[in-house]
Amino acid sequence: MQALNIAVLTVSDTRTEESDTSGQLLVERLESAGHRLAEKRIVVDDMYRIRAVVAAWIADPEVQVVITTGGTGFTGRDSTPEAVAVLFDKEIQGFGERFRALSGEEIGSSTIQSRCLGGLANRTVIFCLPGSTGACRTGWDRLLAEQLDSRHQPCNFANLVIPGRGQHG
């Protein structure tokens, strides 16, 4: 497996580094899988602040993957999809669809309120997960671990962001 540089962004008006269990879970999972943490940040749920952080990571050639957690629901200031989707060169429709299918096994019909999404921008793959630790566990364990593993067949996103691979199409 080829290690990827992954940035993690927690979107929350209330979480701190000490209380950010979702971001911590993602960092633990990616490091356990052999990937490198490029950067971890917490930003308030403000569309323009979220967009600025994600856009900077997309522009950074050292960051290959961005994973956000939080701000994907319908309540209050949830604005991660609006902040991030406009940055995509291509949306990964199947990511949100598959996540909701898997999440439905765990939380039933409540999964329809998840607006998680994924996309590609500037050879960076971006995944926006809900803010709950359970949702991050489901997203990583059941989707991202395989899709960010360069050995996973028949296809994976790792080979699209590793320099020198996946440049056709």
From TrEMBL:
Keyword hit for Acyltransferase: no
Family the UniProt entry places it in: Belongs to the MoaB/Mog family.
Keywords noted in UniProt: Molybdenum cofactor biosynthesis
Role description: May be involved in the biosynthesis of molybdopterin.
Keyword Methyltransferase: no
PANTHER family assigned to the protein according to its UniProt record, in alphabetical order: MOLYBDENUM COFACTOR BIOSYNTHESIS PROTEIN B (PTHR43232)
Source species: Vreelandella malpeensis
InterPro entries on file: MoaB, MoaB/Mog-like_dom_sf, MoaB/Mog_dom, MoaB_proteobac, MoCF_biosynth_CS
Pathway(s) this gene product operates in, as recorded in its UniProt entry: Cofactor biosynthesis; molybdopterin biosynthesis
Cleaved signal peptide residues: none
SUPFAM superfamilies (alphabetical): Molybdenum cofactor biosynthesis proteins (SSF53218)
Protein name, UniProt field: Molybdenum cofactor biosynthesis protein B
CDD domains: MogA_MoaB
Annotated MoaB/Mog domain residues: 7-151
Gene from which the chain derives: moaB
Domain of life: Bacteria
